[in-house]
Amino acid sequence: MSENVYTYGIVEQEDITLDVAGVKNATEVYTVEYQSLAAVVSDIDTTDPDRTDEDVEAHNDVLQRVLEYDGGRTIIPMSFGMAFKNTRTLKGVLRGARPALQSTLNDIEGMVELGVKVISTGGERGSQDVQSDITETLSAVSINETENDLFSDRLILNKSYLVSRSERGAFDDAIDAIQETYDERFTVQYTGPWPPYNFVDIHIGAEQQRGGR
Amino acid sequence: MFILDDILVKPFTSILDILHTMALNELYDTAEIRDELKENQLLYEVGERSQAEYEERKQELELQLEMAEQIKSQMGDRIEVKG
């Protein structure tokens, strides 16, 4: 049997077992602990999994479950495809990246990412005033924000917000207020909570993670 | 005579070449197709497209993307997509 492990993300050291469908039909998700950290993993039979829609969804579902686990956990999400030869290799990577991982965990402690897309319903592009109004309203109840790609002509705003769990209610209210103000002109798509994908920037070398050292 | 032919023909072929490349770029712009896939998903999620419309468009675009990727890899450096 293969000893490969697929990694979803990193949390503070804790023994967690989740009964959830993982990547490549894994049936159990568990943690591999290393000092103050724990990697959320499942067993897999390859170190180079294909990127399929189903597996990307499974990856995101697991992250979502950890995010909501037992009142909420802070997790550094890994991008899809991080599989290691065995837990020993994984621990080696955690050892090397521990300072960066620990400081990122401290930075995002108690925070979640929320996505906001504003879509024009009648072909209106949305004036600068409308955009500033929406942006200012949401900036007031968030810690940080990133601008995402406007991949459609219908999109007048596409942003991700880093929000403290304790501010979730205020952010929800702000979204409701925007929807009410601009009803019929724009549709607001509000998604999350997500792990803070757009607010962490940790790169683990591909060679290091796939190598058998 | 040879020189005259050359002068007459050369600008003409180069314009054709540019037009041809531009048309190919347009047709096989994979970034554009990917954006359309995302737009299709978004409009479905906000309820503007029915599931049937969404599935049909998704299938069309995925096929288009597959063809575009195949042709791009066959043409290699001859196609340069801007933007």
From TrEMBL, chain A:
> Pfam families attached here?
GvpL_GvpF (PF06386)
Q: Name one GO cellular component term.
A: gas vesicle
Subcellular localization(s) per the UniProt record: Gas vesicle
Where is this protein primarily located?
Answer: other
Which UniProt keywords are listed?
Gas vesicle
Similarity remark: Belongs to the gas vesicle GvpF/GvpL family.
PANTHER family xrefs: PROTEIN GVPL 2
Q: What is this protein called?
A: Gas vesicle protein GvpF
Task: Write down the species.
Answer: Halorubrum yunnanense
UniProtKB/TrEMBL annotation, chain B:
Gene symbol of the encoding locus: gvpG
Query: Which protein is depicted?
Result: Gas vesicle protein GvpG
Q: Which NCBIfam families match?
A: gas_vesic_GvpG
Q: Kindly list any coiled-coil regions of this protein.
A: 44-78
What organism is recorded for this protein?
A: Halorubrum yunnanense
UniProtKB keywords: Coiled coil
